[in-house]
Amino acid sequence: MIYVPIIFEKILNRFGLLGYLRTGYRLKILNTSFKIPVIENKEGLYYHQSITERFLLSVLKSLYNQRDFLFIDVGVNFGQTLLKLKAVKRNASYIGFEPSGLCAYYVSLLIGINKFSDAKVMRCALSNEVSILSLYAHSNGDARASIIKTDTEYEEIVPAFMIDSFIPIISEIQKEVILKVDVEGAEHLVFQGGENFLREFNPVVIFENLPHGGDTSRKRQQLDISNFFLSRKYRLFLVEEPEGSLHGINILANEKDYRATNYLAIPANMIGVLNDLCKV
Q1: Are residues 8 and 103 in the same domain?
Q2: Which of 12, 36, 150, 158 is 20 to 30 Å from 65 at the Cα level?
Q3: Listed residue (53, 38, 40, 31) closest to 2, CA to CA
């Protein structure tokens, strides 16, 4: 595969030539240049053209400047978080969980082409039980895919595990843990399946939670997530984007603000590690 400037890749796409040439492009994050493959159906072309969730760069730099971690990424998608992590610390240990077959395949290519060391992707969902679930999406590889049933056109059958199931494997790595969870409304199920995991590793948790929009069930989920962490001596923070500063909160109670959807849950004994970002 030949890697060309992104503008050339866009020109090929505009004139319908992208499918005839095996090309990719390069993306620079911080001071690191990455090779971005473009595969069948233009997968990879769109998701890496711009850097989203820039707050992660600030948070990861603060964390990795002081300690070394194993990064666990629940909801890998097309590897956007993986690239940010490797931009901050090239040899950072990474385990990703991704139920979409297309996304898992793409990220495996991304890892191989960039020769990322100590990075693995497991093709499964994480939930509150070991089972076989449906992954609902608008199309194969949809970034909004979820195990929560929605009115969509595409459905994929996937295996699901609890993160507790992986405690023996993670224990062997012998590092502190960062857990990032972004699974389109199923975050509460991941946490329910990780009670022993949290007790064992006391991780820093980065997670997304979308506004409840007045829906009683989703409003209850926000309360349950809040209680889940506060009862385990965690502090909750809202991430203020794009700079990544942290604002202390007592509870998740977001009805409709889509600018306030990313949160950190930090063990009380680790607050000092992120002092430079904390406002309250």
Answers
A1: no
A2: 36
A3: 38
